[in-house]
Amino acid sequence: MKKLADIGLIGLAVMGENLVLNMESKGYTVSVFNRTVERVDHFVNGRGAGKNFIATHSIAELCASLERPRKVMMLVKAGKPVDDFIDQLLPHLEPSDIIIDGGNSHFPDTIRRTKYVESKGLLYIGTGVSGGEEGALNGPSMMPGGSPAAWSAVKDIFQSISAKVEDGTPCCDWVGEGGAGHFVKMVHNGIEYGDMQIINEAYQIMKDMLGMSADEMHEVFKAWNEGDLDSYLIEITRDILAYKDENGEPLVEKILDTAGQKGTGKWTAVSALDLGIPLTLIGESVFARCLSAQKEMRVEASKLIQGPKVNFTGDKAQMISDLKDALFGAKIISYAQGYNLMMEAAKEYEWNLNYGGIALMWRGGCIIRSVFLGDIKKAFDKNPNLEHLLFDPYFKNIIEAAQSGWRRVCAAALSNGIPVPALTAALCYFDGLRTERLPANLLQAQRDYFGAHTYERVDRPRGEFFHTNWTGKGGDTASTTYVV
Q: Where does substrate bind (predicted)?
């Protein structure tokens, strides 16, 4: 074993433990520390026994055990614990040393921390790490951002431990300055919320409207996973539907229908609101989880409020085919909206994001990995300045072909009282995007009527604002709060 370690890690929970095992398997010596120091000894004498780990029992000991420039990675709970560890590390580090946050931190915190650590003469990286326990051990997707000067020092380690696509390209590359890495991870998590919700809506349609058994649904997802919808989330849904409990019955049907969330989907939706981007599918996916958590209220409502009885009389095989189109169409919208958000954030925060590269980083190792992402990379390789994913000929043609089945699914679900908030939100966005003239002209008239907020006219140049005295009782004074 080397006398000094290549990198140190704080936090030996599930992700940290598996990530350091991954690093060690690639030939790196890793120093490990945990706030509960007994866990350090438990790890090095257990899963880490006989391997190239250096057990440390204090922050000072951890920093003293590292090669220069020192590289310390934290995998701890987001929020105050990250700030606390940064302050504990700083006295034991020197200029050009690197602090890395590999947790699910909110990107504004990473922007702030990067500036703070750089003000002390050190470098900082905030990196998204996706793939869960399995990804951490066998190859995650990694999305690093922060101090650009730090990238060369960690590049070999990060890219060696990350997942690889078919040609060996690592699912890890430098994202951008400040909080860019954690922003991209946040959008990844938002898209994850969206993908999971539309899959769940398809499941409910098959179960409640088509009356399919778990085994029948398993076969459908199995077939879908061998085509255009091939993805990790479709794959695990296939497996979940086939899993039986101790009584030989589908376990999924015995799980309480209240969804948890850690907040990253909400962060994505709030960022979209802050930046004025219509992230409708992901927003509805977050709210769907919130509604699921109101279990007691829903039970009471189910006894008090009547909706339509389920009475599907159509072609079951055709509806399943339509469902596939609906899933694919909504999935395209989810990614299109996510990319739209990243593009706006890049302008706002002056990041130089590589959109094709981001698709490649998501191509393997992460929760949203799918064959679909290869087509996104191709779209941005063809046109790095692509304004919207639906403007790429491939995605334009796919979504136009999918819309008929998608519309039939939404119409049938709504007619039968099956909630499909994400599938319908995505379809409404698609229709809104392709509509040259929306009814916002009336909305602007309403705003001007009650608040003198002014409006522009189609027969005058953009940038000229008008106010009308709609009642004849108002004056000529207009508000200055008009925002496009």
A: 104, 130-132, 188-189, 193, 262, 289, 447, 453
